[in-house]
């Protein structure tokens, strides 16, 4: 679901709510609850409610998918993954050619075979029906409301952001590269390290 879209010259900013992506984020937390201490209480409460078979599946597919980070990229390639109905998104993925899925996994130097992929999608359905569907009722309105607020904030300040990025780019502190419809900005740490010295040098002129 596209919450808002902001254009500023060649820069495109999209605020998208993808229920499937939110569920994958939840699975990522369940795999790494020690790395997400502010979500540990929630993770513990989930593990108390599910059986060992589902627990093992969460960990198994976490290993196959780099802790669910790889499938989080799916919505960059398939707009159907932004469907408000998670089961519809999963059903769409069932019909995606495995070659296209493997291409995404290869970016992480990880391979997946047909059997693993089918079992993974079946597991996602099970997790949604048994666990996440109840969670979604409570968090969805909050997420959409938050995204709308963020979109409004960016909309008010986009001119300032654009000017700042332009100045940083011209001073070589950031570099940019196009990735499909998006522009990715990278921080040039070397230039940043020398910035203080350059300012000092300028003052002494």
Describe the structure.
By secondary structure, the protein is of the alpha+beta class. The protein folds into two domains: 2-153, no CATH class; 171-203, no CATH class. 63% of the residues lie in helices and 12% in strands. The protein has eight helices and four strands. The strands form two sheets. A two-stranded antiparallel sheet has the order 1-2. It has a two-stranded antiparallel ribbon with strand order 3-4. The longest helix has 57 residues, at 114-170. It is globular. InterPro entries: DUF5937, WH-like_DNA-bd_sf, WH_DNA-bd_sf. It comes from Inconstantimicrobium porci. It holds the Pfam family DUF5937. This is DUF5937 domain-containing protein.
Q: Summarize the helix and strand pattern as letters.
A: EEHHHHHHHEEH
Task: Give me the Rg, rounded.
Answer: 21 Å
Largest sheet: 2 strands, antiparallel
Helical percentage: 55-70%
What would you call the shape? globular
**Distance, first to last CA:** 55 Å
Secondary structure category: alpha+beta
Tell me the strand percentage band: 5-15%
Number of domains: 2
Protein name: DUF5937 domain-containing protein
InterPro entries: DUF5937, WH-like_DNA-bd_sf, WH_DNA-bd_sf
Pfam families: DUF5937
């Amino acid at each position: 679901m596209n919450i808002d879209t902001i254009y500023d010259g060649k820069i495109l900013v999209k605020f998208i709510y993808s229920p499937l992506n939110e569920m994958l984020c939840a699975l990522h937390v369940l795999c790494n609850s020690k790395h997400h201490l502010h979500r540990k209480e929630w993770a513990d409460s989930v593990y108390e409610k599910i059986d060992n078979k589902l627990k093992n599946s969460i960990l198994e597919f976490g290993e196959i998918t780099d802790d669910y980070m790889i499938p989080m990229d799916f919505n960059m390639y398939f707009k159907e993954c932004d469907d408000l109905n998670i089961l519809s998104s999963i059903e769409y993925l069932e019909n995606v050619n495995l070659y296209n899925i493997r291409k995404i996994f290869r970016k992480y130097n990880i391979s997946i075979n047909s059997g693993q992929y089918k079992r993974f999608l079946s597991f996602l359905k099970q997790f949604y029906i048994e666990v996440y569907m109840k969670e979604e009722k409570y968090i969805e309105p909050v997420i959409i409301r938050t995204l709308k607020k963020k979109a409004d904030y960016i909309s008010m300040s986009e001119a300032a952001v654009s000017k700042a990025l332009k100045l940083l780019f011209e001073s070589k502190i950031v570099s940019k590269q196009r990735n499909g419809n998006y522009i990715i900005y990278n921080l040039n740490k070397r230039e940043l390290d020398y910035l203080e010295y350059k300012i000092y040098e300028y003052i002494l002129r």
